[in-house]
Automatic annotation (TrEMBL):
EC number of the protein: 3.1.11.6
Pfam families: Exonuc_VII_S (PF02609)
Domain of life: Bacteria
Gene behind this protein: xseB
Record keywords: Cytoplasm, Exonuclease, Hydrolase, Nuclease
Subcellular locations according to the entry: Cytoplasm
Subunit structure: Heterooligomer composed of large and small subunits.
Reactions catalysed, as given in the entry: Exonucleolytic cleavage in either 5'- to 3'- or 3'- to 5'-direction to yield nucleoside 5'-phosphates
Family as reported in the entry's similarity comment: Belongs to the XseB family.
UniProt-listed HAMAP family: Exonuc_7_S (MF_00337)
Entry-linked InterPro entries: Exonuc_VII_S, Exonuc_VII_ssu_sf
Main localization (coarse): cytoplasm
Protein name: Exodeoxyribonuclease 7 small subunit
Role noted for this protein: Bidirectionally degrades single-stranded DNA into large acid-insoluble oligonucleotides, which are then degraded further into small acid-soluble oligonucleotides.
Length: 87
Protein backbone atom coordinates (compact mmCIF):
# COMPACT_ATOMS: atom_id res chain seq x y z
CA UNK A 1 0.00 0.00 0.00
CA UNK A 2 1.26 3.47 -0.78
CA UNK A 3 2.58 5.51 2.09
CA UNK A 4 3.18 2.60 4.46
CA UNK A 5 6.45 2.41 6.33
CA UNK A 6 8.60 -0.54 5.39
CA UNK A 7 11.73 -2.01 6.93
CA UNK A 8 14.99 -2.94 5.20
CA UNK A 9 13.38 -6.08 3.73
CA UNK A 10 10.62 -4.05 2.09
CA UNK A 11 7.91 -5.39 4.38
CA UNK A 12 5.78 -3.41 6.79
CA UNK A 13 6.88 -3.93 10.39
CA UNK A 14 4.37 -6.07 12.21
CA UNK A 15 4.08 -3.50 14.99
CA UNK A 16 2.66 -1.05 12.42
CA UNK A 17 -0.09 -3.42 11.22
CA UNK A 18 -3.69 -3.35 12.36
CA UNK A 19 -5.55 -6.52 13.29
CA UNK A 20 -7.11 -7.08 9.88
CA UNK A 21 -3.81 -6.54 8.09
CA UNK A 22 -2.06 -9.02 10.41
CA UNK A 23 -4.83 -11.57 9.99
CA UNK A 24 -4.87 -11.26 6.20
CA UNK A 25 -1.09 -11.54 5.93
CA UNK A 26 -1.10 -14.52 8.30
CA UNK A 27 -3.67 -16.26 6.09
CA UNK A 28 -1.40 -15.63 3.10
CA UNK A 29 1.66 -16.95 4.97
CA UNK A 30 -0.19 -20.17 5.79
CA UNK A 31 -1.36 -20.51 2.18
CA UNK A 32 2.16 -20.09 0.80
CA UNK A 33 3.66 -22.50 3.34
CA UNK A 34 1.00 -25.10 2.53
CA UNK A 35 1.79 -24.82 -1.18
CA UNK A 36 5.38 -25.78 -0.49
CA UNK A 37 8.15 -25.36 -3.01
CA UNK A 38 10.17 -22.96 -0.88
CA UNK A 39 13.68 -23.58 0.31
CA UNK A 40 14.18 -24.43 3.96
CA UNK A 41 15.51 -20.95 4.70
CA UNK A 42 12.60 -19.27 2.89
CA UNK A 43 10.12 -21.49 4.72
CA UNK A 44 11.68 -20.74 8.10
CA UNK A 45 11.72 -17.00 7.44
CA UNK A 46 8.08 -17.08 6.38
CA UNK A 47 7.11 -19.27 9.33
CA UNK A 48 8.85 -16.85 11.73
CA UNK A 49 6.90 -13.93 10.25
CA UNK A 50 3.72 -15.97 10.60
CA UNK A 51 4.48 -16.61 14.28
CA UNK A 52 5.03 -12.89 14.82
CA UNK A 53 1.82 -12.05 12.96
CA UNK A 54 -0.14 -14.52 15.09
CA UNK A 55 1.31 -12.99 18.26
CA UNK A 56 0.36 -9.49 17.08
CA UNK A 57 -3.18 -10.66 16.30
CA UNK A 58 -3.44 -11.97 19.86
CA UNK A 59 -2.22 -8.61 21.19
CA UNK A 60 -4.88 -6.78 19.17
CA UNK A 61 -7.57 -9.16 20.41
CA UNK A 62 -6.41 -8.84 24.02
CA UNK A 63 -6.62 -5.07 23.69
CA UNK A 64 -10.12 -5.30 22.27
CA UNK A 65 -11.21 -7.65 25.08
CA UNK A 66 -9.82 -5.20 27.64
CA UNK A 67 -11.69 -2.29 26.07
CA UNK A 68 -14.95 -4.24 26.17
CA UNK A 69 -14.32 -5.32 29.78
CA UNK A 70 -13.54 -1.72 30.76
CA UNK A 71 -16.81 -0.49 29.25
CA UNK A 72 -18.78 -3.25 30.96
CA UNK A 73 -17.04 -2.55 34.29
CA UNK A 74 -17.86 1.16 33.96
CA UNK A 75 -21.50 0.31 33.30
CA UNK A 76 -21.57 -1.99 36.34
CA UNK A 77 -20.06 0.74 38.51
CA UNK A 78 -22.80 3.18 37.44
CA UNK A 79 -25.92 0.99 37.01
CA UNK A 80 -28.21 4.00 36.59
CA UNK A 81 -25.83 5.49 34.11
CA UNK A 82 -27.20 7.99 31.64
CA UNK A 83 -30.71 6.55 31.93
CA UNK A 84 -31.36 8.92 34.85
CA UNK A 85 -30.65 11.87 32.58
CA UNK A 86 -33.50 10.87 30.26
CA UNK A 87 -36.21 11.49 32.85
Amino acid sequence: MAGEHTDETGTTPISALGYEQCRDELIEVVRVLELGGLSLDESLTLWERGESLAKRCEEHLAGARKRVADVLDAEDADPGGDDDDLQ
